Amino acid sequence: MINKFKDTIVVSIGGSLLVPDGIDINFINKLKEIITSLVEDNYQVALVIGGGKTARKYQDVASRFSNVKHIDLDWIGIKAIRLNCELILRIFSDLNIHKNVIESWDEAKNIKENIIVIGAFEPGCSSDKDAVELSIILNGKSVINLSNISHVYDSDPNKNTNAKKIYNISWDDYLGLIPDKWSPGLSSPFDPIASRKAKDNGISVIVIGASLENFKNYLNSSNFEGTTIS
User: Fold this and answer.
1) What is the C-alpha separation between 196 and 198, in angstroms, rounded?
2) Mean pLDDT to the nearest integer, 178-200
3) Alpha-carbon span 44 to 42, nearest angstrom
4) How many Å apart are CA 153 and CA 173, to the nearest integer?
5) What angle do CA 182, 17, 7 make, to 5 degrees?
6) Residue 106 phi, psi dihedral angles, 5° rounding
7) What is the DSSP letter of 108?
8) pLDDT of residue 2
């Protein structure tokens, strides 16, 4: 099938941007304006939604019970992601959007609508891996990562006030900075499972933080603040 779209853009959106404490209506409204412009310019946009603080609050409570395992925490995260996905799906319903949240890779193939919303559907990783998998299926070359992490640093900035921002980094060097294994609720610019998958498939990740103005700068090929991992 010939792709009718100018290009496909895969955007991973951290759940904490959508629901930092309460639902951030202003952020969602501005996001919708940007996506509307991309649709009008004939791009396909795949939105991969995270669980964020909603997931972490439930996971934190569940983890205090000795019978709850890592896989249980992952499933809690998956359900929180699904809730965030449904929110975006309904708010964007007046655009040319696929009518259901995608819940399997087969469903992601040959979609004709401009906008796709992706929900997590397997334990053992974060929505970052879903973004990489989707980029592979849609023949994309990169994933734009919107989250509350603005850059990759050479050390944890929460522990080291002298941590330095990195603007370009290889996958090998990046993997040396983060934990080897995934754990539910892990906070890192991009999770280790997804990172290895991206490396193996030649997918770049652009970490650009929470600023939608910064996101627009990147889309317009203007100067932007962030880190490119490739």
Assistant:
1) 5
2) 80
3) 7
4) 11
5) 85
6) -60, -35
7) G
8) 46
Structure tokens at 128: 């970052």
CA distances from 92 to 48, 69, 127, 188 (A): 14, 35, 20, 28
Tokens of 5: 């779209």
Report residue 135 as tokens: 């980029």
Asked if residues 58 and 128 have their Cβ atoms less than 8 Å apart, the reply is no
Name residue 228's amino acid: T
Q: Is the pLDDT of residue 85 over 70?
A: yes
> What does 179-230 look like in DSSP terms, one character per residue?
-SS--TT--SSS-HHHHHHHHHTT-EEEEEES-HHHHHHHHTT----SEEE-
CATH domain 8-229 topology: Carbamate kinase (3.40.1160)
pLDDT at 110: 84
| DSSP code per residue over 23-89 | --HHHHHHHHHHHHHHHHTT-EEEEEE--HHHHHHHHHHHTTSTT--HHHHHHHHHHHHHHHHHHHH
Pair type for strands 204-209 and 227-229? antiparallel
Tens of pLDDT, residues 140-166: 889 999 998 899 998 888 888 898 999
Percent of the chain at pLDDT > 70 equals 96
Distance of CA 28 to the CA centre of its chain: 15
How many angstroms separate the CA atoms of 222 and 220, rounded? 5
